[in-house]
Amino acid sequence: MQMILRIVKRFDEDLFNIMKENGIKSWDVGIKWLLTWMTQKVDLQKSQRIFDYLLSSPPSAIIYFSAAYILHWSNQIYELDEWELFVEMIEFFQEDEI
User: Fold this and answer.
1) What are phi and psi of 96, to 5 degrees?
2) Of 80, 44, 11, 3, which Cα lies nearest the Cα of 92?
3) What is the pTM of this model?
């Protein structure tokens, strides 16, 4: 999971810093949360095609997909005020408590 944040940092250090300042650690950016986020932001047909791709690709594909997806939504993250960012990050990146 550290790879995801390393990639984000390399391409958008400001976004990386926002995630770091809001307490998002490498294990918070779990693949299950990114896939959940994707299914909420992307229509079902596109989500299914992405799942198909990820299931038929090498394991590293999910890491690069996850980093690219975070970077893709960076403009929306930048537009959030501090409270909205907190809620969004908690909602999508928190660890399961089950």
Assistant:
1) -60, 140
2) 80
3) 0.68
